[in-house]
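Weekly structure sync, notes
Attendees: PL (lead), two postdocs, one rotation student
Agenda item 3: pending single-chain targets
PL asked that the sequence for the first pending target be pasted directly into the notes so everyone works from the same version. It is reproduced below exactly as submitted, 351 residues in total.
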Amino acid sequence: MHTPDHVYYHKRPIELSAYVQDKMEFDYLIVNVGLRFDFFDPRAEVLEDFSRPRTSPRRPAPVRWQLSPRLGLSFPISQNGAVRLAYGHFFQMPAFDYLYTNADYIYDPERGLSRAFGYAGLEPEQTVAYEIGLQQAFSELIGLNLVLYYKDIRNLLGTRIEVIAPGFDEPFQLEKYGRYVNRDYGQVKGFLVSLERRMAGGFGLGIDYTFQIARGNASDPRAVLIDEMSGIEPEKQLVPLDWDRRHQLNTSLTVGEAGRWTVTLVGRLAPDFPTRRRSPTNASAWKTRPDGPVSYSSTCTPAVSGSSAPSGCSFSLGFTTCSTIATKSRCTPIPAALSRTCATTPASRRD
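Predicted structure, written out during the meeting:
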C-alpha cells in the first residue's frame, strides 16, 4: 500500500485471535469470565544495528502474542440495585504504517527527522482496564447508573532518534533519523453518571454526565522528532492527551408512540479541544500543550501566539426520526439542527 509519504510496501502479516467466555449465575452473584488470545506475525525483517541502516545485517521481526483475561462480577445490594465490577487486559497492534514505512531504511537527507522510519518489531499497545458500577432503579421507569473507571495504557507509540555511525561504508555518516518505538505511557480515569426514564406515556428521557482525565507523555508519536527539530526539550511529565475530555453532558428526549413512530432529540455540551501550537520547524506538525479544557478529536486548530489561547465550549443539537410501518422499521438521522461555539480565554499557564 501507499503511505502519506508516498512510500510503497507490500507485506502479508499474519494476525489471529480467539477467545473463550463463560457466564455463571448463582443466587446472589453473576460471573462473566473470559480469556482472549491474540497473535501477530509481521513477516518482515528488522536491523540488528540501527546505527548502520544501509549495511547492518537483518533478522526476522519477532512474533507478538498475548493472553488477555477478562472478568466481570455483578451482585445485588437491594431489591432494585446492583453493583458490578469489571477487569480486563486488551491488546492492539499499531497501524501497519508504523511497522512498514520505509522498511528498507533508506535515509533521505532532504527529509531528515521529518519522516520517521517504520519498525516491524513494535510491541502491541497494552491496556489494563478497571471498572466499578452501581445500578439503581427508583421505579419501573426511572433508573440511575454510576460508573467509575481507570485505564492504564502501556507501549504507546513514540519515536527514538538514531545517529548513523561513521565508517562501515555508511552514507550520510553522523546524520540523525527517527524510528518508531514503544516508549510512551498514558492513563485515563473518570466517572459517568446517567439517569434514564424509559419510554412511557408518550416520551422517554436520558441524561448522562462524564468527567474524564486522560494524561500521558505525548499525543503525537512523532513528538520527540518534532521537539528535536524545534530545539525543545522533550516532555518529562504527563500532559493532557488529545482524547482528554474533562466534561461532557449528553441528553436525549424521545417522543412518540412505541412500536409505531418516535422522534428523538439529542444534545451534547462539551469543552473545546486541547490547545495546540505549531512547531517552528515543521508547519504540518502540532504539539499539545497542557493547558485549557480538552476534547476528543484528531483535528488541529491553530492556536493564538503567546502563552494563552482561546478555548471554550461547543453545543450541538440534532434529532432522529424512527417510524414503523407494518413489519418494517426505518430510522433516519437528521443532520445537526443547531450548532454554535462560544469561546473564552483562560488565564495564562506555563508550558
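Discussion points:
- Helices lie at 96-100, 223-230.
- Residues 275-315, 319-351 have pLDDT under 50 and may be disordered.
Action: rotation student to compare against the earlier draft before next sync.
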